[in-house]
Fold each of these.
Amino acid sequence: MVRYGIEDDEGKAAYDFLKNAIIVITIVVVACITLASTTVIVDAGYRGVVLYMGAVEDKVLDEGFHFITPFVEHVVEMEVRTQKYEAIATSASKDLQDAHTTVALNFHLLPGSVNKIYQEMGLNYADRIIAPAIQEVVKASTANFNAEQLITERTIIKGQIEKGLLDRLNERGIIVEAVSITDFKFSEQFSVAIEQKVTAQQLALKAENDLRRIEIEAQQKVATARGEAEAIRVINIELEKSPNYIQWQAVQRWNGILPLVTGGAMPLVNIPLADTTK
């Protein structure tokens, strides 16, 4: 009987130890869960939106380590770094040509407004507010230009689209950094017509340049001829001013003997003069 009593005591002790171990482990696990639920780390480039029992609180958590109320508060992170959103907007130009405009938008969320953005639009704010804004602004802007101007005055149109998006998005806490028009596409028939017109303009410009070149060459030839005629006229005038030379030319005949040359580096032709004493 004693032996059985000892065994019973040992079994009871083992049971108590196991029970106590389970209790301790449970307490440790609950403590860890509780501790974990009281702290949160907001990653770099993000802000934390605090939800109290599902309701958005009027505070925003910066990057880093924070304490929160366990089990009743929950934190949603929202990125505040520069992001890119691209959309294709279909609209009609002033001359009723269909235009497909691809717009690339660089933006970031205003850090202090992420709780309001989450409350009003949620995490899919880009589809809820940015996409409709791009569609409306592009349609309003392209309606002021004909199809050719959409190509030739791209910088002006880009400025109008950027201003329109600034006005619509910045007030909602979405800060527009840059807007780019990456592509304009029109109907195939219009694209062919534009290509033919550009080709015709290039050919006309080439013909005009060729005509201008021919005119310039003709003017150069006329100028050259006039210069030569003027040079001959000046020579004749100078010769007329030398009566001795004219008299010598009238009475002198070349006898096969070259004129005498005198001088050093610059040879001088000795022109014999007629004897005027006879």
Amino acid sequence: MDAQLRAIDETKVKINKRKGVIAFIKVFPNFSIIIENMLPPADGPERLETRAMVDAAYNKIIRSMFDSLKTIAKSAPMTGQGFGADPEDKEALNYHILLIENMFHFYNELDERGDAALGQWRGKAMLEMSEHQELYVNAIIRRPMGKLLDFLDSAENLIGRGVTPASIPSSHPSHSRSVYKKILGAYDAKEVRRGVDTLRKRIEKHFGEADDAMISAELIKKITAECERKYNDVCDRANRVAGEMYEGSVQVDFMKQDISQAFRR
């Protein structure tokens, strides 16, 4: 046990190699299968004691793995819910990418065999992956949709503070009808397609070099689908603001059909 924990703790990854599935994450699913196959029969008298000892070992090893993985991935100071103020920061993206890849691998490759300890950690891996996938997607869609997202965030913040939506355009020059119309003018169906094409290339670059081609393809598909969902959410928000703040006098120049077509090109 001490040797396993020491090997995990001593794992070092150079910054320019900080991607892909880390060795101990890759090894553990096979390691646990070997251990499970060595356990006494389920109806044997020594099974319960051995099961408890093995589960305690699993808890120590996996906790160490997860902690070490975050240490390896982290290279920029954490502030608030993420890193710095810039969601496009390369180090922040690398952090999320590494966590997504490794937790996805752990979740998909681990055979929990009905064991509660392994099942619990597999569930934690899914939660970690979902959290960092959300942060990653929120970050990368800002490049194609940033100006619109900034406007929507600001408008919704005002509404959330109790400001009457219809009064915002006249009382806040930065949210006038002409400003929103100008912003929306930069997001027609053609621009949405261009943005999605660029987004897809970035996702493929970030996740297309995984050691396992099947896992790589599944991750790209999963994250691309999440990006499409986010785009649809932006479309809903843009239309809602247009209706509540401008009473429909401003038109959103792209529709969900345009988004769907763009992601299936």
Amino acid sequence: MVKRKNNDKNIQSLKTQPLFLRKLQSDPDIFPAIRKSSISFYYKKGKLFEWKDGKFSTHQKYGVKFGSKDYIGEGSVASFRFSDNFLVDYNIIKSNCKAYQKSEGIGIGDFIKNNKYTTKKDIVVLDIEITLTESKSNIDRIDILLFDTIKKVLKFVEAKDFTNKELWASKGRKAKVFEQIDRYKTKIEKKKDDIVEAYISAINSYKKLFNLKLPNPESIDKQVVLFIFGFDRNQLQGRLEELIINNDAIKNQDYYYYACGDPSKANINSLFRGKPI
């Protein structure tokens, strides 16, 4: 079940940290996300830092610092060490994080950068990488949660780069992404009251952390919009139209999509509405 509750002590302690004050709270590339008893700071789709139990942590593959030589000879030993000062090594850690991101994660990051909850828009990105199940053996993560601050409605979005194989099935067959969306819709309907309550808690934390004026959500839209990006005009008029938009296997089955080649230019209002397939 989704849980998004942080105590005041955890948030107030974070607000005294130099890494947060000098980097994380002002970096437009960073998306802070409230979690159960922790706060994650995403860059693109990678968790750059996590604040938990009064300290920051990062993945070791992001925190490694290599020596001055880019290349090593066969049989030689590479020179590296791990960061012992995240503030000083911030740009190195951030660069390492980006290097591990695939095109899909980079595209999602480009979209949320312009639309996160700290912007003064009617519809904002409220969360990313949302897990709706407690089972460790079968984890579904929905990419994006939107929030209409006027109507006070939440809406989930599954985002896919055009190269993602889960988007595609032969004509007349249902692609894997729509099976994902079916699962999401079932879980959302089952846990809708808990989800709303969780994001009321999250927004209370965001208010304390960033002095925001956000209303509390009151409901969840039952639809999950498929956001497709990373294609050119020819691909839109070819494979995308044939295998998704005009595919009889998914036509009139209550699926919605929004397509935009460059995710940084996506219209968040159009994404929220989506188009029926």
